[in-house]
Design brief:
Elements lengths: L7 H9 L5 H13 L6 E4 L1 H12 L11 E5 L26 H8 L3 E6 L33 H8 L5 E6 L5 H7 L2 E4 L19 E6 L2 H9 L30 E5 L9 H11 L1 H4 L3 E5 L7 H16 L18 H12 L2 H13 L5 H25 L2 E5 L15 H5 L6 H6 L3 E9 L2 E8 L5 H15 L11
Parallel strand pairs: 2-3, 2-4, 7-8, 7-9
Antiparallel strand pairs: 1-3, 4-6, 5-6, 5-10, 9-11, 10-11
Helix pairs in contact: 2-3, 10-12, 10-13
Bound molecules: glutamine (GLN).
Length: 480
């Protein structure tokens, strides 16, 4: 086995036991990062990564993450390291500060190896909206890795790194995790500081981990959660995140979301999810069908709220403070218009127009206001469900990885990729996707969600199921 085949946890143990060093680990992963046939990476930080690894190897006491490398979605600001959010608008942009969650991981001894490809400003479900070309799925190079955090997901599936960070607004961690056959988690809204995360839709955006095991995802999460004075929506975290070890589900009530196990879901996806749900009782748990009567309005609600917030957040890209600046404008208004026309791609422009319309005077209450009311109904559906069950389960994505180009011409078919993840985002709940099998050779993800702050229980349930499933996470040609 190569060093890159080991989980992060195993890599840490090997460093602590003196069997390898951070420099060796970083070099082994760099070799795969620099031979990037999947276009996972937008920037690689070779010199700094090796220097940091050397520093960590020289410490008398190893920090908890022991100098294991990590990749960071390009939506997260990294000081002096080019951060583009997949947009031409930020081509060559070097932030002057590092996102809090990234700084916390660095302080815990993770080594940043590079920045990963993504849909422009995290808008998309396939990474095809990146201004720097699409990322390819390591399971099948003719297919998308999902999105918007597609580069972070493919980098872990292709063993370029053992783990990475993504961001999830309506599904952008869970859906690519599902399509790439790895674990991806979006914690409770507010669990992780958004300071330094380039904003898409602020009431929905959350950072979270990708990894090949639930335990690795938990370990990464444990070092990021908690209040940050730089983000007023970040929360005090009283119960630390634990690395899970459960092998059984005794007493756990699993609710299966009926609306998300129906005709809109590919048969092969449903079958893989069902066979995992069928394991619950053998592990000591119970399965209860549950209904989320308003989940069907999730997509419509999301595509009012998210673009509305995005249109406000993206107003800052005016060509004056930072980012792209048009070369030829005579007056100020023309300067704004040209800068934005040149810097933003088509999907971002579509969202800005949708959002500006939904917020416009006379329409605000009919669209944005109404969407907020429906959001409350969706939250109540979940509250009622969690009066009966501990976690809910559904497919993560209605299909397996689709072909490059298959959905680019039809925005609505692309939007439907997130039909299973969006209701949970609107409710602000913690949720993760674990690989649960294959359908026609492509990975399928099972999505689990729980009440706010139930991360520890969710991780235990996911761990017990992960062991029972025994998914082989190596795409052909990758790893052992
Ligand atoms: N695909 C959804 C969108 O395009 C979700 C993206 C995300 O979670 N960042 O908005």
């Amino acid at each position: 086995m190569a060093l890159t085949d080991f989980s992060a946890e195993e890599q840490i143990a090997a460093v602590v036991a003196g069997e390898t060093s951070s420099v060796e680990l970083v070099a082994a992963h760099l070799a795969r990062v620099e031979h990037d046939e999947w276009n996972s990476f937008l920037a690689v930080d070779r010199e700094r990564a090796l220097a940091r690894a050397k520093e960590i190897d020289g410490l008398a006491t190893r920090p908890p993450l022991a100098g294991v490398p990590i990749a960071i979605k390009d939506a997260l600001s990294t000081r002096d390291l080019v951060t583009t959010a997949g947009s031409k608008m930020l081509e060559g942009f070097r932030p002057i500060y590092t996102a809090t969650c990234v700084a916390r991981l660095e302080a815990a001894g993770a080594v940043i190896i590079g920045k990963t490809n993504m849909d422009e400003f995290a808008m998309g479900s396939s990474t095809e909206n990146s201004a720097y070309g699409p990322t390819l799925n390591p399971w099948d190079l003719t297919r998308v890795p999902g999105g918007s955090s597609g580069g972070s997901a493919s980098s872990v599936a292709a063993r370029q790194v053992p783990w990475s960070l993504g961001s999830d607004t309506g599904g952008s961690i869970r859906q690519p995790a599902a399509l790439c056959g790895i674990v991806g988690m979006k914690p409770t809204y507010g669990a992780i500081s958004r300071y330094g995360l380039i904003a898409f839709a602020s009431s929905l955006d959350q950072v979270g981990p990708f990894a090949r095991t639930v335990r690795d995802a938990a370990l990464l999460l444990s070092h990021m959660v908690g209040r940050d004075p730089m983000d007023a929506t970040s929360l005090e975290w009283t119960e630390p995140i634990r690395v899970p070890s459960a092998t059984r589900l005794d007493g756990v009530r699993v609710g299966v979301i009926e609306e998300l196990m129906s005709d809109g879901i590919e048969p092969g996806v449903r079958a893989a999810c069902q066979s995992t749900i069928d394991m619950v009782e053998a592990l000591g748990g119970t399965v209860v069908p549950i209904a989320l009567p308003h989940a069907g309005y999730g997509l419509a609600t999301y595509y009012l709220i998210a673009p509305a917030e995005a249109s406000a957040n993206l107003a800052r890209f005016d060509g004056i403070r930072y980012g792209h600046r048009t070369a030829d404008a005579d007056v100020l208004l023309e300067h704004y218009e040209r800068t934005r026309a040149e810097g933003f791609g088509p999907e971002v422009k579509r969202r800005i127009m949708l959002g500006t319309f939904a917020l416009s005077s006379g329409y605000y209450d009919a669209y944005y206001g109404q969407a907020q009311r429906v959001r409350t109904l969706i939250m109540r559906d979940f509250a009622e469900a969690f009066a009966q069950v501990d976690v809910v389960a559904s497919p993560t994505s209605p299909s397996t990885a689709f072909r490059l180009g298959e959905r680019t011409a039809d925005p609505l078919s692309m939007y439907l990729s997130d039909i299973c993840t969006i209701p949970i985002s609107l409710a602000g709940l913690p949720s993760l996707s674990i690989p649960c099998g294959l359908s026609e050779g492509l990975p399928v993800g099972l999505q689990l969600a729980g009440p706010a702050f139930s991360e520890n229980r969710l991780l235990e349930v996911a761990h017990a199921l992960e062991l029972a499933i025994g998914f082989d996470d190596a795409p052909q040609g990758v790893g052992v």
